[in-house]
Design a protein that fits this description.
GMP Synthetase, Chain A, domain 3, 2 helices, 8 strands, 29% strand
Length: 161
């Protein structure tokens, strides 16, 4: 077991605290005194120049999948020289959380698309079947994926030689 702590800090620095006007900028402080400025998504009156919770959620899932994939590939003696992913989180009404007693559907990140592109090097290069097997196992072992209800769709981009 391990603990992972984040300190969140927000301060109102203006007189107008009406819904459309208060500043949503805040900070996330991680271990090692790493501070990241965050805000709401621009669609929810946040600032686009800062990371928002939905992006952070997508990054967390994509990063966990990547780190698990790298570990599994390393154990199988495959060498990876480059890994990139252009993850996309879909925020929409989630009908699973709607019923006549609880009101309208609530917003949720219902799907996350992972589109990893991996470059292997060396003499031991896995084929597409093995790569897909490693992705499946990485998904099954990813701590974050095991913690959420979001559907995670892995669409590997294969390098054609």
């Amino acid at each position: 077991m391990s603990e992972h702590k984040v300190a969140i800090s927000w301060k109102n620095e203006q007189d107008d605290f009406s819904y459309k006007n208060y500043d949503r900028t805040h900070s996330w402080k991680f271990g090692g005194d790493i501070v990241i400025k965050a805000s709401a998504a621009p669609e929810y009156l946040g600032k686009k120049e800062f990371v928002n919770p939905e992006e952070a959620f997508a990054a967390s899932l994509a990063s966990c999948h990547m780190l698990t994939f790298l570990a599994l590939a390393s154990i199988k003696k495959y060498t990876i020289s480059f890994y990139e992913d252009n993850a996309v989180a879909i925020l929409e009404k989630n009908e699973k959380f709607s019923s006549s007693s609880s009101g309208p559907a609530r917003m949720a990140i219902t799907k996350l698309y992972l589109r990893p592109k991996i470059t292997f090097s060396g003499d031991n290069i896995p084929n597409e079947t093995i790569i897909n097997e490693i992705h499946h196992r990485a998904h099954m072992e990813c701590f974050i994926a095991n913690s959420v209800l979001t559907e995670i769709i892995i669409e590997p981009v294969f390098n054609k030689v």
